[in-house]
């Protein structure tokens, strides 16, 4: 069968597009993907990127032909921080570690984490005064880091190591900027940022190694950390401290900023849609009246979940899924050649009007069970799909639902940020500037 030539993306080769690519590779990749239609390619020197947006081809790449791809090399920059953890590893290491980590994310474990998420959400609310102005993204990061720490490691990392959450942020910022750094002149400001970034990584590393050593000396707990320490492969091999360290840091990285980013956008959207805020408050109030406030595994707030899924549609925390073809791979009428990078973006996929009519409109009703069932396979992919899909997807859905509903019971977040806030695509889809909210206590106003 004769294959068609992949259409060239308009921006290819121009000097300005190369400059854009060096300045912020993530933003550039996202722009390419949004311009690609079903499929499009960008070539510059040795770099060959193929953007794919058509659901059935995405399904073919991520699921049916998954073994013909490895993680995109750009993703590997993260390993400066996460080592060879699940996010970046490939081959036998990935297979072994994914298998060992999986039990911590089984349904029963996720249900057990509900109380942790609810308690942390209540503590966040209690720490705010009525009328206080908060930096929304910072508060969400603090909250989600607390939840990951307590749920997976039975510890609040900020209590173990002062400034832990700030250091994780700094380290991530450093990793985010790494690809740009090589191309820029080595000016003092950058050297300073480099020193700060590496120092933050070293402090996180020390805190996590301390956590591992302390746990080795203590009785096992029913958590992810003890599970990793006790884990043995079929050949009786257990994980080294370095391997455990990589997976622990990976969970902090993968499990907190993504959720925090989605929640930041969610509260920004909800503050601009009073009817959605009213719906959330109604659901929380009715659950309270019915005495349904348990977080013992039975917590279920269908409307809060719909709002969370719709926020993730518009602002998927992980907005790029990158692969590299190991061999020539036929995709529809085309061939993705060996070595090419494949870029799949939940962000552009979720804005396809053929899948989501009026895609810019924020409408949680898109995620009623009937509407969700009608979506095409691979049409909604905030957690990816296939063997490399997010291991924490169910965790994130549980956590988001609980935080949104617990907030709706107690507080209203009023947006006081002037003007529109745009996106700043780095590792996650961050807001381009600080979003400020005024906290209004609902109970105080009744
Ligand atoms: C709204 C929140 C989240 C979003 C949008 C998200 C999204 C994603 C995406 C798109 C991937 C990559 C899929 C691929 O390359 O095919 C991924 C992988 C991963 N995520 Fe998440 N994630 C979220 C929350 C979490 C949480 C809460 C955890 C853990 C506590 C987590 C842990 C991971 C890990 C370990 C991987 C690598 C899995 C592997 O390659 O085996 N994520 N996530």
Description of the structure:
By secondary structure, this protein is of the alpha+beta class. It has one domain: Cytochrome p450 (Orthogonal Bundle). Helices cover 52% and strands 11% of the residues. The protein is built from 19 helices and 12 strands. The protein has helices spanning 15-23, 25-35, 55-64, 79-82, 91-101, 107-112, 114-126, 136-153, 157-160, 164-181, 188-217, 224-230, 241-271, 274-289, 302-314, 346-349, 369-373, 393-410, 442-445; strands spanning 39-44, 47-52, 69-71, 133-135, 321-325, 329-331, 334-336, 341-344, 411-415, 423-425, 429-431, 436-441. The strands form 4 sheets. The chain has a 5-stranded mixed β-sheet. Strand 6 and strand 7 form a beta hairpin. Helix 13 (241-271) packs across helix 18 and helix 15 packs across helix 18. The protein is globular. The model has no long low-confidence stretch (mean pLDDT 89). The structure holds protoporphyrin IX containing FE.
List keywords for this structure.
446 residues; globular; 3-stranded antiparallel beta sheet; 19 helices; binds protoporphyrin IX containing FE; alpha+beta; 5-stranded mixed beta sheet; single chain; Cytochrome p450; 11% strand
Outline, from the CA principal axes?
Answer: globular
Oligomer: single chain
How many structural domains are formed by the residues? Answer: 1
Rg calc: 22 Å
By DSSP (H or I, 4+ residues per run), the number of helices equals: 19
Content-based structural category? alpha+beta
Q: State the end-to-end CA separation.
A: 70 Å
- What is the correct CATH architecture? Orthogonal Bundle
Bound compounds: protoporphyrin IX containing FE
Give the strand order, joined by hyphens, for the main sheet: 1-2-8-5-3
CATH topology: Cytochrome p450
């Amino acid at each position: 069968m004769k294959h068609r030539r992949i259409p060239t993306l308009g921006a290819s080769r121009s000097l300005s597009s190369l400059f854009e690519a060096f300045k912020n590779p993530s933003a550039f990749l996202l722009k390419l993907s949004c311009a690609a239609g079903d499929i499009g390619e960008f070539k510059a020197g040795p770099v060959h990127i193929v953007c794919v947006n058509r659901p059935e081809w995405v399904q073919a790449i991520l699921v049916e032909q998954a073994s013909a791809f490895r993680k995109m090399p750009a993703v590997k920059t993260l390993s400066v921080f996460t080592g060879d953890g699940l996010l970046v590893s490939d081959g036998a290491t990935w297979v072994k570690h994914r298998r060992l980590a999986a039990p911590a994310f089984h349904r029963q474990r996720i249900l057990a984490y509900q109380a942790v998420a609810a308690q942390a959400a209540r503590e966040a609310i209690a720490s705010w005064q009525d009328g206080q102005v908060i930096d929304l993204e910072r508060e969400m990061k603090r909250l989600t880091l607390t939840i990951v720490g307590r749920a997976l490691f039975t510890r609040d990392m900020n209590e173990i190591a002062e400034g832990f959450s700030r250091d994780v942020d700094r380290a991530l910022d450093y990793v985010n900027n790494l690809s740009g750094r090589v191309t820029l002149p080595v000016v003092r400001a950058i050297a300073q940022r480099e020193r700060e970034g590496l120092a933050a990584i070293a402090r996180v590393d020390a805190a996590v190694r301390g956590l591992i050593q302390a746990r080795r000396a203590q009785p096992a707990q029913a958590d992810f950390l003890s599970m990793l320490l006790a884990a043995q492969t079929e050949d009786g091999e257990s994980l080294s401290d370095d391997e455990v360290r990589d997976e622990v840091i990976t969970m902090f990285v993968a499990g907190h900023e993504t959720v925090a980013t989605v929640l930041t956008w969610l509260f920004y959207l909800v503050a601009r849609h009073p009817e959605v805020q009213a719906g959330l408050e109604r659901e929380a109030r009715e659950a309270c009246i019915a005495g349904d406030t348990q977080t013992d595994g039975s917590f279920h707030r269908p409307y809060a979940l719909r709002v969370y899924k719709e926020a993730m549609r518009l602002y998927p925390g992980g907005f790029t899924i990158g692969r590299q073809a190991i061999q020539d791979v036929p995709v529809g009428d085309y061939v993705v050649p060996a070595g090419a990078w494949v870029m799949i973006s939940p962000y552009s996929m979720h804005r396809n009007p053929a899948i989501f009519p009026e895609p810019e409109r924020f409408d949680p009703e898109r995620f009623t069970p009937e509407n969700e069932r009608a979506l095409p396979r691979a049409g909604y992919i905030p957690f990816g799909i296939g063997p490399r899909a997010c291991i924490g997807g169910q965790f994130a859905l549980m956590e988001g639902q609980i935080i949104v509903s617990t907030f709706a019971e107690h507080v209203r977040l009023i947006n006081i940020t002037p003007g529109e806030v745009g996106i700043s695509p780095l590792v996650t889809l961050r807001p381009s500037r600080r979003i400020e909210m005024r906290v209004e206590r609902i109970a105080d106003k009744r």
